[in-house]
Design goal:
Blueprint lengths: L1 E5 L5 H12 L5 E7 L2 H9 L3 E4 L8 H4 L5 E4 L7 H15 L3 E5 L10 H15 L3 E7 L1 E2 H10 L3 E4 L6 E4 L1 H13 L1 H4 L2 E5 L2 E3 L1 H12 L4 E4 L5 H7 L4 H15 L12 H6 L6 H7 L9
Parallel strand pairs: 1-2, 1-4, 2-3, 4-5, 5-6, 6-10, 7-9, 8-12
Antiparallel strand pairs: 9-11
Bound molecules: NADP nicotinamide-adenine-dinucleotide phosphate.
Length: 292
């Protein structure tokens, strides 16, 4: 029986990967979701999978979690610790004999000077140099991240890129591509997949949201120079936050390469069209608080 381990399984993309793998259930495949808490175990069980204890910051948990694993989905959170956490996970995966790694990275130019993009690229190079078979996922702006803001305040969408278009991807689409690569590594080995399906400004997103929700949604641009302080107030790890904010300063002036690039990857890999902002919002209308 093949065994697939999904890290970040309690997060946005990893959770979607678990769901995508459940939808393509195969009796010859066991899917494990990595968790570091009882609440995480329960969420993974609710998605129909077994949970395995894995904490990147408790290295002794890593090697046992990889036992018998053939294919690994490697996802980390919004922190500079992603570097050491990925290194530890890859060392454990190598020791356990994991063959294929699907890495959740980010879309960026190869020569990007921005730290969080560079870290993802260094992790990709480590995966390749360690001799794994690999598939690199390189998503751009997550629709889900912006949607979380809309859920909190459905009358407005705040962002930091002025009137610049950016390119969007839904986490379910990242997950669908990941699930295909995890299920059939040979067909997707050595492939780097850019994941960005729809190009839209925030004003265009707000207009779509107004139509779909039936109530006015306004785009409120704020200067990108303010973002770092905001991220700090929100508690984001400061080294990652600094790089993210620097990236949006470049995006605001149109100087971030690939910021609005789109690719047919989702349709090519999964055989179904990518999720648009309109379809995403329509499917999740029930998540919004009722209009007063
Ligand atoms: N948002 C965007 O627009 C965007 C665009 C491009 C790329 N990305 C990339 O996407 C990635 C983030 O994905 P996401 O939004 O799915 O993240 P997320 O929702 O924040 O989830 C992070 C996951 O990592 C787990 N985790 C955190 N610390 C851990 C530890 N010490 N040991 C084990 N697991 C740990 C979390 O588990 P707990 O539930 O236990 O905390 C959670 O499952 C980042 O690498 C980012 O660079 C994001």
């Amino acid at each position: 029986m093949r065994r697939i381990l999904v890290t970040g399984a309690t997060g946005t993309v990893g959770g979607a990967v678990l769901k995508a793998l459940a939808a393509t259930a195969d009796d010859d495949v066991q899917v494990l979701g990595a968790s570091r808490s009882a609440a995480g175990d329960a969420a993974i069980a609710a998605a129909g999978h077994a949970a395995v204890r894995l904490d990147y910051d408790a290295p002794a948990t890593l090697r046992p979690a990889m036992d018998g694993v053939d294919a690994l989905f490697l996802a980390t959170g919004y922190t500079v610790d992603m570097l050491v956490q990925s290194k530890r996970a890859l060392d454990a995966a190598k020791a356990a004999g994991v063959r294929h790694v699907v890495h959740l990275g980010a879309l960026a130019a190869d020569d990007t000077p921005l730290a969080h993009f560079a870290w993802h690229q260094l992790i990709e190079r480590a995966i390749e140099a360690m001799g794994f078979s690999w598939t690199h996922l390189r998503p751009n702006f997550f629709i889900d991240t912006a949607w979380a803001g809309v859920r909190a305040r459905p009358d407005r969408i705040v962002h930091f890129v002025a009137d610049r278009p950016v390119s969007w991807i839904a986490s379910d689409d990242i997950a669908a591509v990941a699930a295909v690569a995890l299920a059939d590594p040979a067909a997707h080995a050595g492939k780097a997949y850019p994941l960005a399906s729809e190009r839209a400004t925030f004003a265009q997103v707000a207009s779509v949201l107004s139509e779909v929700t039936g109530r006015a949604v306004e785009y409120r641009p704020r200067p990108a120079a303010e973002l770092f302080a905001i991220l700090q107030r929100q508690g984001m790890e400061p080294v990652y936050a600094k790089s993210l904010a620097e990236g949006l300063v470049l995006a605001e002036t149109g100087d971030l390469p690939l910021a609005d690039a789109v690719f047919p990857t989702v349709e090519e890999v999964t055989g179904r069209p990518a999720t648009t902002w309109r379809a995403f919002a329509a499917a999740r209308l029930s998540e919004l608080p009722r209009a007063s």
